Amino acid sequence: MPKSTYSGKDIQVLEGLEAVRKRPGMYIGSTGPKGLHHLVYEVVDNSVDEALAGACTTIDIVIHQDNAVSVVDNGRGIPVDNVPKYRKPGVEVVLTVLHAGGKFGGDGYKVSGGLHGVGVSVVNALSKRLEVEVKRDGKIWTQAYERGKPLGALTATGKSKASGTKVTFWPDPDIFEEVEFSWDTLASRMRETAFLNKNLKIVLTDERELEPRRAEFRYSGGIVDFVKYLNEKREALHAKIISFEAEAEEGTVEVALQWNSGYNETVMAFANNINTHEGGTHLEGFRTALTRTLNDYARKHGILKEKDDNLSGEDIREGLTAVISVKLRDPQFEGQTKTKLGNTEMRSFVQSVVTQQLGDYLEEHPKPARSIVTKAQQASKARMAARKARELTRRKGLLESSTLPGKLADCSIREAALTEIFLVEGDSAGGSAKQARDRSFQAILPLRGKILNVEKANINKALSSQEIQAMITAFGTGIAEEFDLEQARYHKAIIMTDADVDGAHIRCLILTFFYRYMREMIEAGYVYIAQPPLYKVSVGKKHEYAYSDKELQQALARLPENTKYNIQRYKGLGEMNPEQLWDTTMDPESRTLLQVTLDDALAAEEAFVDLMGDQVEPRREFIQRQAKNVRFLDV
Ligand code: 0RA
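A: This is the predicted complex of the input protein with 0RA.
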């Protein structure tokens, strides 16, 4: 009798994929929209690795009508010959063995680390169906899987002179909360990927629309085009983007930068194409070099006098838009979200490259050099004035019994991890919220009307706004360079505004403030948006709340036929009595909170500039683009 060909290796493989299905969060972060989109990134990253190896020029991504996604590349194709250890074709190993993706590759720079690089096998495990087609060695090879298990062997089904891989997968509805891909999320990620891989063509097609939507991303300028794009809607301080690159034993570094006349710093750092949100050694090297080089230049040319203090890093980075991209062989990712580069050799490498090349640039371009230094000097003056003003407020505060804002109704518990603060639009809703709250752990800060748009103001002006001062003192963290997350007095800051246009505007203003001055609060997951109900459906004495139009339809559909009902549409928080406000929006047992994330830094940055910036045209375009998603408008 022939022995079974089923080996211990097969059992290990099945156990591996079972583990992924049991705890998907461990592999893709979540089973919400973020995790769902991660499936696409995982496959695309494998294609990008082919591009990094110089073997792939085009990646095609198609969202199909049934929310299946295809990723097609013209790389080398996943190897089809048997892997001795598994006695199975490379394709099957890559698709069923955890972390097998890079095993056959050379030792080039790979997209890997953090949640990335978990392997295509994870996508396979979390798909109700997956089909792979490989063109390689003159043939077309195909295989299909269900929930990670092969339905048959890899088979040659045709001939082709081309090479490449096509993966089509149907995310498993048993795993994901909702299987619905977002065009905006995918498009913005693919644009970013294209910026980071000069000349790589990425085409995204959405077949769910009557008229398929298509976008093509290909940038011959790479990260220079990235900076151009980020600064497009801003007024540049110098016309040409400064850029340089270098390669050495440590790896490669590319930098592109341009200052604009605004007040914000937009510096994005990547390591092996991964957005290192938490920064790391490459960013530290960049910052140190930037500060030193500009101060040296300013002194050498007498723009800074002997008696003057050095310009601070923050002053120098005011209005700076920059992209730093390093590639290295063995990236170490650290930090809470594994997006902080840890390789120490990158600090000195980036620092010396930037010091050298930025120094040369400044010497060769005296006009932009002077504008940049002058702008930093102005920032420095404004910051000093702001600091004085702040010290004054603090001292004044000390003379009073408490430094907390008068309008704040604080909670009694002092343990920050257990407490929350509601930022409420208007004094009247603030009043209801104060009555409704559980005062032991919920604090209320009413904000009057439209708070200052910090996108259009420098730090000095921002700090002189009363509402902004109130928020800062209430949170206890300080801002900008003095920001300290540890000092946060609450671990939930919940924005609670009306469900109308003004409410949306105020929410946007508050988010802009967080984004520009307390981004770490968002990164730490401390910022939330309250979800008041939109409707109340009453039948006799009973009632039910609906939080969306869909929920309203569902609630109505549940009613027995010919039932008389009444629908109340809530426009303002003030229309609810305190008890209703508690039940629907504030009670942790029954409420829904939306956690604000910085998932997509690029999309966030864009949206903030579009919505809150100086120019009207981008805002109009944004609104027109989003018009189809608008549920209702108040007139
Ligand atoms: C393993 C080894 C090699 C390439 C790949 C996997 C590969 C995986 C994916 C996933 C999507 N597209 C892909 N393209 C390639 C190296 C191949 C070689 O050395 O010839």
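The pocket of 0RA is lined by residues 43, 46-47, 50, 73, 75-76, 78-79, 94, 101, 104-105, 120, 165, 167 (CB under 6 Å). DSSP finds 20 helices and 26 strands in the chain.
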